[in-house]
Amino acid sequence: MKKASILFVDDEKDVLDAFQVGLTDRGYEIVTASSGAEALDLLKSYTPDLIIADLRMQPMNGFDLFQEVKKIEKHMGIPFFFLTAVDDVLAQKYGQKLGVDLYITKPVDLDNLDTAIKNKLSES
Question: N or C: which end of the chain has fewer CB within 10 A?
């Protein structure tokens, strides 16, 4: 059975490292990017099963990354989660309006994230 591939985007190296280890241990193939621009560059030659991105990144924030990804025809259908410390109802509503699949606030329990990923990928 093919491992699900996840593109994980966060500008904090310790967050990338922690989730790469934790999700790899749960059987996922994890590709990381430390910026929205790096993620878009990776997407030129790579199609993940799911994208998880932080909101607070510079110069391209998570909302902008989401909108850029959804402009790429072959990536329009990829599920997209925000995993962020921004615990703000307006940001969550804006994410929903854009069409993000799930908005999760940090800190997150890895088991809960794993369950959310499995549930979303089983829908796709």
Answer: N
